[in-house]
Amino acid sequence: MQDIKVHANYIRIAPKKMRLVANVLKGMPFSHADAQLRNMTQKSVLPLRKALHSAGANAEHNYHLRIADLFVRNILIDPGPSLKRMRPRARGSGFPILKRTSHVTVILGIMRGKEDGTQSKDFVAQQEIKRTPQKTEVHLRKKFVQQAKSRASRIKQRATTRTGAKTRAFQRKAI
C-alpha cells in the first residue's frame, strides 16, 4: 500500500514558522496529531490541520482505510515564492520586505499492528523518523563562544610571531 500524500501550496506563512508546528506531529497517530493541533495556538495550525484532515478523508474515501489505522509518517514544509514589497527608508531609499510562502506536504502511513493491540516492529521503525537537529539557543551560544576563542587565539598567535622587543595584541599606537 502506498502512502497517502496531500499537498497544500502557496500558504502565506513563513516556512520556518510552519516547521515549528510540523516537527511536533511527525510520527504521531492521526488522532493524536489532530488533538495536538486542536490545542495549539499558532497561526500555522489551521492550514496544517486542513491538510491533515484532507489526507485522512482521502484515505477513507479512496483507499477505504480507517482513520484509527493511520499515522503521520512525515510532514514536509518547503519554501514557496516570496512576495516582494518595499519599505520607505531615509533619504528616499527603500528597504526590501520578503513575505514568504510555504508549500506543505502531509504524508500518512498505515499502522500495522498485531491482533493483541500492541504495535509491531514495523510501525515502531516507521515512527523513528530522522529529524533535523534543532539549533537551540544553548547550541548557538556554544558555537559563538568557540568562534570568539578561536579569534582570540589567532590574534595572540599573530602578535607573538611579529619581530621586535615589544608586541601587543592590538597595536593602536606605534611603539
Automatic annotation (TrEMBL):
Alphabetical UniProt keywords: Ribonucleoprotein, Ribosomal protein, RNA-binding, rRNA-binding
One Gene Ontology MF term: rRNA binding
Region (Disordered): 149-175
Function: The globular domain of the protein is located near the polypeptide exit tunnel on the outside of the subunit, while an extended beta-hairpin is found that lines the wall of the exit tunnel in the center of the 70S ribosome. This protein binds specifically to 23S rRNA; its binding is stimulated by other ribosomal proteins, e.g., L4, L17, and L20. It is important during the early stages of 50S assembly. It makes multiple contacts with different domains of the 23S rRNA in the assembled 50S subunit and ribosome.
HAMAP family: Ribosomal_uL22_B (MF_01331_B)
UniProt similarity note: Belongs to the universal ribosomal protein uL22 family.
PANTHER family associated with the record: CHLOROPLAST 50S RIBOSOMAL PROTEIN L22-RELATED, LARGE RIBOSOMAL SUBUNIT PROTEIN UL22M
Cited NCBIfam families: rplV_bact
Name by which UniProt lists this protein: Large ribosomal subunit protein uL22
Protein species of origin: Candidatus Brennerbacteria bacterium CG11_big_fil_rev_8_21_14_0_20_43_10
Gene name, Swiss-Prot/TrEMBL: rplV
